[in-house]
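# nightly structure sweep
# worker-07 picked up a monomer target from the shared queue
# config: single-sequence mode, recycle default, output format = structure tokens
# input follows
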Amino acid sequence: MYRREHRHQLSFEDFFLPFGGKLSGDNRWIKLAELIPWDELEDDYASQFCKGFGAPAKPFRMALGALIIKARMAITDDELVEQLKENPYLQFFIGLEVFQFSAPFDPSMMVYFRKRLPESVINDCNERIVRHGLNVIQAAGTDDDQGADKGGGSSTGH
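# output follows
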């Protein structure tokens, strides 16, 4: 069973740190999270579960995020969970809204994440992430171009 949480897109500015402060938008995990179309990808993930049967699965962002972190850091399942307990940026990346000192899941859960997101699904996610990232970059370039036009000056010198 899968229960999709209907909430607004998670923003790093809203991530609550119990010891004060804010996350930095310059962090690599924040930047990577912004390039991933989490909601679009989650729709496909949610469709593979039966409605009303079994314990609810962990959220898609948590599953894919954990697999991405594990691959990028080249760490074991146990080390991944330890890193998640210690690092608010990684907690944000997997979709938590508030820093927590406890593990968000047991290392054995990674077996289920890999089963639910096999290589073919990961490859499809990668392609969609690249397309989404290109769209974000193109949109940012369009905004920059429009900002340059607002200067009011003319290139002819008249």
